[in-house]
Specification:
- The structure is a single chain.
- By secondary structure, the protein is α/β, with parallel strands linked by helices.
- It folds into 2 domains: 180 residues, Aspartate Aminotransferase, domain 1; 260 residues, 3-Layer(aba) Sandwich (Aspartate Aminotransferase, domain 2), CATH 3.40.640.10.
- The chain is globular, with a radius of gyration of 22 Å.
């Protein structure tokens, strides 16, 4: 029997044992892919897509068929945004090199982005560039362990923080057979659908403190608590918004540092606050970011308080050949400018509320929609067998994800039972695009109910 967590990794994946059932050129390409790239790679959907072009909120297959992309967080300002494309091409035509030469664009970008973090990070924070969010989280943990002299890290139960050796060791969402690090401790998912919100904060604090005690009991202690403020892999939980500030206070009292992983929640994804942790009133010690930072070009970063990184900078040389290279910075600057000038975080709030309201209307007709949550253009729709037991229904979620794919609408699923529809479109999504998503979701739910 497939375990819940294994199911979560496979719900939106093509079954490679069925490759013989695929004929034609796409089937041949899947077979070649399996032979050339190996078994660890996954393809989305029971019926995989062959995508050849993107524009705005749309993807196009080899036949020119259009798909509404309601899932892609990487291209926050839309597929192939002309300003980002132009910035990348222009810089690549001039220079692409590392950060060991004095260059104006990287300084200009740092000056543009640092004030938006607020608190101590805005006052005296530093920004350190990497290529991926995994690298940013890896670097943050190294700094935390150097700063504290301890190794212990606390995460949520279904967290995903990367695929380097260190970050995979604190990413239980990779699957039950992906080992966690010796000094990693988990706290339960802050499930606002099943845990009363008025008890959530003291309950969560108790869980964190218990794991700190356990780390100390085993002789090492706490280096860091790292958290994605929208709890993406846990199941998309946006409330209560006063959950994390008390945790940050507790972590610091016990000698650790608080790391806000904004790889998924940041850059306006969760609305006007721009950074997810700011909704919680947290002043983090470090913030990591990646994915949408360059709208598809690999660029990521860590922002860290000057006092936290001072000893690390004194004792350890940091260099990243491609992190913060000239082309990456051009992509990041263009993306940041577009987010601000086109007011895309505000659009995320407006259109996200519209999508959640639309699913709330559907909930009245389809009681298998147990809960609707999220903030900005990060929407979670939890599917259950019935609203009384609230038993997760991952099989239904899988049918919806794949049924929408067949209707040319792309979403995914998340959570330990893979029963939460994950709707996370580019931030240029409009209410018209949302209507198309909702129309197909309603038609599919009617079909499945029949």
């Amino acid at each position: 029997m497939t375990s819940a967590r294994q199911h979560a990794t496979m719900v939106n994946a093509f079954d490679p044992s069925r490759v013989a059932e695929r004929d034609g050129e796409t089937g041949d390409m899947i077979a070649r892919r399996m032979r050339l790239l190996g078994p660890a790679y996954r393809l989305f959907y029971e019926n995989p897509l062959r995508i050849e072009r993107g524009s705005g909120v749309f993807l196009y297959d080899q036949n020119g068929e259009e798909y509404l992309d309601a899932y892609n967080n990487v291209v926050g300002v839309g597929h192939a945004h002309p300003r980002v494309v132009e910035a990348i091409a222009a810089q690549a035509a001039r220079l692409c090199t590392h950060t060991r030469y004095v260059q104006e664009p990287i300084l200009r970008y740092a000056e543009a982005i640092l004030p938006g973090f607020g608190g101590q990070l805005a006052a005296d924070g530093h920004i350190m560039f990497t290529c991926t969010g995994s690298e940013a989280n890896d670097l943050a943990l190294r700094i935390a362990q150097h700063r504290t002299g301890r190794n212990g890290v606390i995460i949520t139960s279904e967290a995903y923080h990367g695929n380097s050796f260190l970050t995979a060791g604190l990413s239980p969402s990779l699957g039950r057979r992906s080992p966690l690090g010796q000094w990693v401790r988990q706290v339960p998912t802050p499930d606002s659908y099943r845990i009363p919100r008025d008890t959530m904060v003291p309950w969560f604090l108790e869980q964190v403190e218990r794991q700190i005690d356990d780390l100390e009991r085993h002789g090492n202690g706490l280096a860091a608590f790292i958290c994605d403020s929208i709890f993406s892999s846990d199941g998309i939980y946006d409330a209560p918004a006063d959950l994390l500030a008390p945790v940050a206070d507790l972590v610091r009292r016990r000698g650790g540092v608080f790391i806000a992983d904004e790889v998924q929640a940041g850059f306006g994804r969760t609305g006007r606050a721009f950074w997810g942790y700011r909704r919680h009133g947290v002043d983090p010690d470090m913030v990591t970011m990646g994915k949408p930072m360059g709208n598809g070009f690999p660029v990521a970063a860590l922002v860290v308080r000057s006092d936290i990184v001072a000893g690390f900078g004194r004792d350890i040389r940091y260099f990243n050949t491609f992190g913060g290279n000239a082309v990456a910075i051009a992509a990041a600057q263009a993306t940041l400018d577009i987010l601000r000038e086109e007011k895309l975080p505000e659009n995320a709030d407006r259109v996200g509320d519209y999508i959640r309201a639309g699913f709330a209307r559907l909930q009245g007709r389809f009681p298998v929609i147990g809960d609707i949550r999220g903030v900005g253009l990060y929407v979670g729709v939890e599917m259950v067998t019935d609203p009384v037991s609230r038993e997760p229904d991952g099989a239904l979620a899988a049918r919806i994800v794949n049924g929408l794919r067949d209707r040319h609408v792309l979403i995914s699923a998340t959570g330990v039972h893979a029963n939460i529809l994950k709707i996370r479109p580019p931030l240029v999504f409009t209410t018209g695009d949302a209507d198309r998503l909702l129309l197909h979701a309603e038609a599919l739910l009617e079909e499945l109910a029949g």
